[in-house]
Amino acid sequence: xxxxxxxxxxxxAGVPLRPDEFWAVxxxxxxxxxxxxxxxxxxxxxxxxxxxxxxxxxxxxDAGCIQTVGNxxxxxxxxxxxxxxxxGMENIRTTLAVYGIKSPKKAQIDEIIEFSELEEFINTPxxxxxxxxxxxxxxxxxxxxxRDIIFLDEVLAVGDQRFKAKCRxxxxxxxxxxxxxxxxxxxxxxQLLCNRGILMNKxxxxxxxxxxxxxxxxxxxxxxxIVSNPFLLLNGDIEDxxxxxxxxxxxxxxxxxxxxxxxxxxxxxxxx
Length: 272
What we know:
Helix content: 25-40%
Order of helices and strands: EHEHHHEHEHEEHEE
Strand order of the largest sheet: 2-3-4-1-5-6
Oligomer: single chain
Radius of gyration: 23 Å
Distance between the termini: 40 Å
Structural class: alpha/beta
Strand content: 15-25%
Shape: globular
């Protein structure tokens, strides 16, 4: 919007912001090597996905520089590139061609089909697939080949628990030969896959360190926003959870139910 004259807008790095304007991402700096996975955490709107788009080259930075060495693979929106009219098999070949694999081996295609668990539907148009089936196919295709740098944005937030575990193992294997940047709200996935973390807050890098310390700082930063409702406690703060029940209790469908629940926390939490 700050561009002058015709053509594409020029850099707005040196132009003062208008009232109520803000930088979506500013003053973020880190280095990542092969075999490492860094997790990006923060509230919705903190700038996590925008940072991934910058790293992926979808957005040009107004200031600073981004240096990447090697080929890049992004898994940001699973199934977004699948043509609903084409069959699953046709989408596999088409998507691989987009990634530069114009003549995939039969073993690679078979592995994609096996991982997606869509053997019975692979020759069916994707417009008849459920959302879960599209996710399985998209993830299987996108992770069927090695990349030097991989960007992942909440790709493990969908699917059933069994498939999520299967996807985590696939990503864990990819990390061995790649540098991985993972955006996620799941502490479980972050702790299992990442060794470092970045906390984003209002577009800026508030903290960088080990994934454990990053998540701890994240909890402390937003502890004041936790309400007294025990079910809204951040994951990982609950040390013990017990429901006192009676084995002889019979409950009719539609009737009221009162549960007596004890919750033991690891530390004192602030509330509104």
